[in-house]
Amino acid sequence: MKFLKAAAVLAVSALAMPLISHARDLTVGLAASTTSMDPQFYVVGPNSAMARNIFDGLVNQDEKQRLQPALALSWKTIDDTTWEFKLRPNVKFHDGSDFTADDVVASIKRVPLASKNSPSSFAAYVKAITEVTAVDPLTVRIKTDGPTPLLLNNLSRIAILPGKMRDTTTEEMNSGKGVIGTGPFKFVSWTPDDNVVLARNDAYWGEKAAWDKVTFKIFKNSSARVAAMLAGDVDMIESIPTADTRRLQASDQLKVVNVAGNRIMYLHMDQAREVSPFAKGPDGKNPLLKPEVRRALSLSINREALVDRIMDGQGVPAGQLVPEGYFGYDPAIKVDPYDPNKAKELLAKAGYPNGFSLTFHASNDRYPNDSKVAQAIGQFFSRIGIKTEVATLPGSVYFTRASNLEFSFIMGGAAVETGEASGVLGPILETFGDKAGQGNRGRYSNPEFDKALGEARSTLDDGKREELLRKATEIAMNDLGVIPIFYLANTWAVKKDLSYPGRSDGYTLPYYVKPN
Fold first, then answer.
1. φ/ψ of residue 349, rounded to 5
2. At 353, is the secondary structure helix, strand, or coil?
3. Exposed (0-12), middle (13-18) or buried (19+): which is 509, by Cβ within 10 Å?
């Protein structure tokens, strides 16, 4: 892999904020609270989004999760297990100290410390790294335990801190000590479940942000968040409730931003047990084991109606697990059409002309309109002759029981955190094991799928790796290891004198909010 040319670096500058001569303050309404100011502690959306305002990685992800140079200007592979990074010169941390290769080494080595007691740690993103070395002040070499084509994707999740903070604990950072990065904003204060205040970093290596100060206010109650926007108490909000989308759009003082997100909503089916607790044919056996039945279920779902009527347009019908434009997306795979007659034919072919009994379990407080979506899908199933009951539960109960395989047919959601297909194919569809398929609650298993995915993970050549990911996707979607439903949309409302491009990862980043 050759060094990136200067044009790639200039592309980052083109995405950056222009310098605004008359800066002002910005107030943002968030839907969820940051739970830690340690950017290496907990892999969860609200924390990762907040960290991006303060910290950079060696590479960052753009609004479509494509990789862009950040603290590393360029990189190359020395051999299959050695990467070399050339670092951006003249970068300062918020405390005025110089950024060097030693800071990269210390930041990567700090991840195990930050992972202690983490609900979901960053350790997975550095587990392949066996050695990280500062060759000179602006050169870093990283060795891995094997070919690691996703090293750049993984490193985009690792915040770079000053080397002197290598032993700083999460508790210390949560107290405000050492929240020091190289990002466009500096940390000022954090009041858990209430607000975060940031100030512009005038020494930022990119173009300066438009805002002197940014105040994030937490509105966990969706109605309160919308009310604050309508009252002018905030300049923008994220995560618009579907029921309020049209009301906000109707305001001549506001604009609504709606972009396809990286979270896929899907259906998981018991594909491992001949007798399943909540899916029974006339013979008492599990009908979901038959591919014709799974295809019939998919064809019975009117995805367009779900998006338009239940989600108020906040979604995109899906036929695979990553949206168009993502690495590994297969344009040859189409969304299953709504065809209840064909679905009935397939049920009869599978030996169920009169359907079978099914209880469909779903969460009722985890995803937008999850209970309503589940009820609508249950009605679609009933229309093709499947005797369907829908049971929804709070997420705190539902996901534990689903992971314990207490159900037969469930709905879930998964975000493409790495920006490419293996990041969701592996957790959901890879054969379940100690180190694989941890989100595979249907216990789908296909050796050919596992083989293609495994080869992709060890293939450095981008073209060959994408072919393998598409092959794995084709296998899984032909089998319907899961049934994709739709990608959730990400939404924001902003005052009409502002603009925000939106992001597929749903992050709210004031650096990209521009005054018109």
1. -60, -35
2. coil
3. buried
**C-alpha closest to that of 187 among 199, 195, 205, 169:** 199
Nearest to 158 by CA among 60, 73, 91: 60
Dist. CA 471–CA 230, nearest whole Å: 48
Name residue 134's beta-bridge partners: 140
Q: Determine the 3-state secondary structure of 85 from DSSP.
A: strand
Q: Which helix (H) or strand (E) holds 229?
A: helix 222-231
Tokens of 149: 């084509």
> Once rounded to an integer, what is the mean pLDDT over residues 380-385?
98
Alpha-carbon span 512 to 464, nearest angstrom: 34
Cα–Cα distance between 49 and 512 in angstroms, integer?
A: 13
**Separation between Cα atoms, residue 259 and residue 240, nearest integer Å:** 12
Distance (Å, rounded) from C-alpha 88 to C-alpha 71? 5
Q: Report the alpha-carbon distance of residue 390 to residue 357 in Å, rounded.
A: 11
Q: What is the pLDDT of residues 105-145, one digit of tens each?
A: 999 999 999 998 888 889 989 999 999 999 999 999 999 99
Tell me the angle at which helices 462-479 and 422-429 cross, rounded to the nearest 10 degrees: 40
Radius of gyration of the chain (CA): 24
Residue that wins the pLDDT comparison between 366 and 85: 85
Number of Cβ atoms within 10 Å of the Cβ of 498: 18
pLDDT of 22 reads 54
pTM value is 0.78
**Does 4 score more than 70 pLDDT?**
no
Tell the residue number behind the tokens 């950017």, with chain if given.
Answer: 39
Helix, strand or coil, per DSSP, at residue 284: coil
Which tokens go with 320? 């695979």
Residue with tokens 């991840």: 111
Maximum C-alpha span of the chain: 75
3-state secondary structure of 330: coil
CA distances from 437 to 17, 258, 418, 425, 465 (A): 40, 32, 16, 9, 20
User: How buried is 400 (Cβ within 10 angstroms: 0-12 exposed, 13-18 middle, 19+ buried)?
Assistant: exposed
Q: Identity (one letter) of the amino acid at 289?
A: L
pLDDT of residue 23: 54
- Output the six-digit token pair for 363: 């969460």
The answer to whether the CB of 362 falls within 8 A of the CB of 371 is yes
